[in-house]
Amino acid sequence: MDTFDGLNARQHKILLYDFYGVLLTEKQKSVFMMHYMDDNSFAEISEVMNTTPQAVADLLKRTEAKLKLYESKMLLVSKFEVHKQTVNEIDQILNKMAKVGWTDIIDDTAKIKELVDTLI
Q: 47 with 18, same domain?
């Protein structure tokens, strides 16, 4: 899956790298960083790495596959996104409570309890 909860494919790959990049080789990290963070083309990266653009593309494809494999096993990005959504919902409830002068506090407190329970 190249998109994830409203993220575009590039953002999703960078998020995967943020979580799992430490598990990559130095060469994989370098190529990923040069392409996605520094926005270099395969040709530009191949000059730096002293290889062909096709070799860069192949390494990047394998690196992305490895990041996706890690996510399929550990689900850290998925859990992060759920937690992020939960925090956003809590924030919305708290804002609503502030606007209405806390009149709906019993219902909103119960909803907050449910949301916090999803984080545990």
A: yes
4 lies in some domain: no
| Per-residue b or e along 48-76, where b marks 16 or more CB atoms closer than 10 Å to that residue's CB | ebebeeeebeebbeebbebbbebbeeeee
Asked if residue 91 and residue 42 are part of one domain, the reply reads: no
Exposed, middle or buried: residue 16 (CB in 10 Å: 0-12, 13-18, 19+)? Answer: buried
Question: pTM here?
Answer: 0.75
pLDDT in tens, the chain (120 residues): 344 555 699 999 999 999 999 999 999 999 999 999 999 999 999 999 999 999 999 999 999 999 999 999 999 999 999 988 988 888 888 778 777 777 667 677 777 877 877 776
